[in-house]
Amino acid sequence: MPTNPKNENFFERVYQVAKKIPYGKVTSYGAIAKYLGTAKSARMVGWAMNASGLKEDVPAHRVVNRNGVLTGKHHFQGTNLMQQLLESEGIQVVNNQIIDFEKYFWNPADELAD
């Protein structure tokens, strides 16, 4: 039975997008889902980011919710590792939310040409 390449390993497709997020930038679960043509799959992108702990080359700390809130922070080792990683890239976080989120937001739909 033939497989649809668009459906082959959704998590790997998410990781390929996440790996392209530039240093000092962030994106949202929904922006990745929309870019992949699965706009209603933001939660699955979150699951992929959670599972990415096994892959050191996926910058999961750069993926946040649509309001810039670090909703995935509890999946990182240590109390504030996600925040510390973002701050090391020059992104200010207060109360688990990125300050000036729009300034740091990277939209894969705008930045990546298919």
Distinctive features:
single chain; 114 residues; mainly alpha; two-stranded parallel sheet; two-stranded antiparallel sheet; 4 strands; disordered N terminus
Please tell me about this protein's structure.
- The chain has six helices and four strands; from the N terminus they run H-E-H-H-E-H-E-E-H-H.
- The protein has helices at residues 10-18, 29-35, 42-51, 81-88, 101-104, 108-111, and strands spanning 27-28, 63-64, 93-94, 97-98.
- Strands 1-2 form a two-stranded parallel sheet. Strands 3-4 form a two-stranded antiparallel sheet.
- Helix 2 (29-35) packs across helix 3.
- The two termini are 27 Å apart.
Briefly say what this structure is:
Helices cover 37% and strands 7% of the residues. The chain has 114 residues and is mainly alpha-helical.
